[in-house]
Amino acid sequence: MLLVHACCGPCAVTVFQTLLAGGERVAGFYYNPNIHPLTEYLRRREALALVAGRLGVAVTFADSEYDPTVFLRQTAFREKDRCAPCYALRLDRAALEAKRQGARGFTTTLLYSKYQNHEAVRAAGEEASRAHGVAFVYEDFRPGWDEGVRLSKEWEIYRQPYCGCIYSEFERYRKKLLR
Ligand code: SF4
Fold it and tell me: pLDDT tens per residue, the chain (179 residues)?
């Protein structure tokens, strides 16, 4: 089994489909303490559950570990370069979970998004792999971007308007302040 760290529903569509089409046994893992606020975490959680249900993928939701303090401490004083520690936080936990579940390795839906720093995601996955002795299965899922967007719209899956953290939410909407 391959454990897929999943950040949301839309990004999981192509990743789950691609891996399943390759004959992979897939399980999902939702660990995203970066998402702000809690109501947004719940919305993305629900979207992921809908996608997983359609594709027959079981997902572990680490809801008891949702604590924005963890993310804020991880990125404190590194707010401008916050994405690398954000990836590291989530992929380190995913690696541990892959080990706990006896998976052959782990990967992440962050490798699908053309809005993420792809090489930094890959580096964080490889570092987590080294730290915990479980394989990071790298694949560039970005070529499936358009089809993933199309299907998520067709399936009426919630598509979030900002990356996730309080900083990205501020950057997304700050122009409304300045009008
Ligand atoms: S912008 Fe996205 S990847 Fe970067 S720190 Fe915020 S939630 Fe994490």
Answer: 999 999 999 999 999 999 999 999 999 999 999 999 999 999 999 999 999 999 999 999 999 999 999 999 999 999 999 999 999 999 999 999 999 999 999 999 999 999 999 999 999 999 999 999 999 999 999 999 999 999 999 999 999 999 999 999 999 999 888 87
Distance of alpha carbon 75 from alpha carbon 30, whole angstroms = 20
Q: Which atom of ligand 1 is least distant from the CA of 117?
A: 3
CA of 23 to the centre of ligand 1 (A): 31
The rounded Cα 37 to chain-centroid distance in angstroms is: 16
Peptide bond just before 37 cis, omega within 30 deg: yes
Residue closest to 92 by CA, chosen among 49, 33, 151: 33
